[in-house]
What we know:
By secondary structure, this protein is an alpha/beta fold.
Amino acid sequence: xxxxxxxxxxxxxxxxxxxxxxxxxxxxxxxxxxxxxxxxxxxxxxxxxxxxxxxxxxxxxxxxxxxxxxxxxxxxxxxxxxxxxxxxxxxxxxxxxxxxxxxxxxxxxxxxxxxxxxxxxxxxxxxxxxxxxxxxxxxxxxxxxxxxxxxxxxxxxxxxxxxxxxxxxxxxxxxxxxxxxxxxxxxxxxxxxxxxxxxxxxxxxxxxxxxxxxxxxxxxxxxxxxxxxxxxxxxxxxxxxxxxxxxxxxxxxxxxxxxxxxxxxxxxxxxxxxxxxxxxxxxxxxxxxxxxxxxxxxxxxxxxxxxxxxxxxxxxxxxxxxxxxxxxxxxxxxxxxxxxxxxxxxxxxxxxxxxxxxxxxxxxxxxxxxxxx
Length: 373
């Protein structure tokens, strides 16, 4: 069994370095507890890379990623570019190119609710309690990667959405296989009443469905799906959809659990994989120690799954749930007695190594103190 792993670390912009720093702390704890070795190689990307090299994805960074067993990614984006429509080079271009170069065709975003955080959701408890969804988003085709054109003088622009069977089939197979492991229901979200690309998705989806007769099929237009996620999220098990719809739907779904700071993701290809929280760079929180590291930490758990370190992944998720249950969380989840980004990471790392023998006095934690004994 392999025990040594090369991990590319692309911390990126905004709060990216802070949350990824806690994931590295977690991996150090995993290494100590399970006798693994993680060799971290750091690369520039996003706005940070533009400021230093002029390129949102330097060749050196791409090489580090291709030579690694997995990529741990932070966040990307900077207000200086968001507020400048004339900028020709943007941080997001680096992320899109990275996905394409690594062949990361499937983005997987799990969503589950935690009973101790139900009151943090904007939705009623009876609507969301027990929600457990896996969203599969196609990642390297569609309108984000189609031909683009802008005629600034004429005030005219277009973005072309293209899909082929080769783009669609791999992620549909992956979604069916995941549904077989779960509640055996798969929903295709599209806009087949209007878009030819969506009709192609449906055609290929139905063809592939014949190979998975034990999975119940469901079809839903994206506008209705956006509404149903709010009205009755528990009806969904596994969702599969195209790039832009998946981007929007998964961000909408993220608020069901009470904080976008809880949601991890994995981007998977045939030879490479990248793991990142779905939240953005949140520049307003940069350097303040208030960013929620749990999405990044749970993305790390998905990375451990990918590396087939199942017991370590299970222990990490158990440790996260322990922190949440004891309200050892950041201000977005506990405004009365918040802990810093670093404190949350340390609490989880300590539980991984010591569990109930942890240095943390749990009775003090429960009453809002962090005394070490």
